[in-house]
Amino acid sequence: MPVRSAALATAAGAALLLLAAPAATADAGLLTESVTVDPVGRVAADGSVTLSGTYRCTGASGPVYVSSTASQGDSSVRAGIGGTRATCDGLEHPWVNTGTPDAVVLKPGAAHVEATLMELRPTGIVPLPSFHARHGQDVTLAAG
After folding, report:
1. FRET pair for 58, CA 20 to 30 Å: which of 36, 93, 95, 112?
2. Which residues form the DUF6299 domain (predicted)?
């Protein structure tokens, strides 16, 4: 049991380090993986938020997802807005995430969105996150 606890602690620590690390930069000519955010998102009357963009990735050995968060005002308070399964075939694909934030109410107006292209790479007992791309952008949330 102590070995399992240590493995979980190591995996959690690695995930936190990866989340805190700045996104890797590459020569524009070598860039093969990316995620974008469309400049306009939607807020429905029921409070659900829809965000979208595109992604491109290659070389995944585990499941890959496009996740997104949005914030308004206080940038330290972010709302998770859904997740979409990604296909890593080197082609550009659209993504659309819809979700209703639990603790944050997002309203029409200016917001900041961050999209992350993340793989759950099989490594031993616990899959570890491997980040393919990340992009943050100011957007407008429109009613509708």
Report:
1. 112
2. 32-143
Do 115 and 86 form a contact (C-beta atoms < 8 A)? Answer: no
Q: How far apart are CA 65 and CA 131, in angstroms?
A: 10
Whole-prediction pTM value?
Answer: 0.76
Q: Is the pLDDT of residue 2 over 80?
A: no
Write the CB contacts of 54 (distance below 8 Å, at least 6 apart in sequence): 34, 35, 36, 92, 93, 94, 95
DSSP state for residue 23 in the 8-state scheme: P
Class of domain 2-143: mainly beta
Q: Which residues, 6+ apart, have CB-to-CB distance to 129 below 8 Å? A: 14, 15, 18, 19, 118, 119, 120, 121
Question: Residues for the chain: how many in total?
Answer: 144
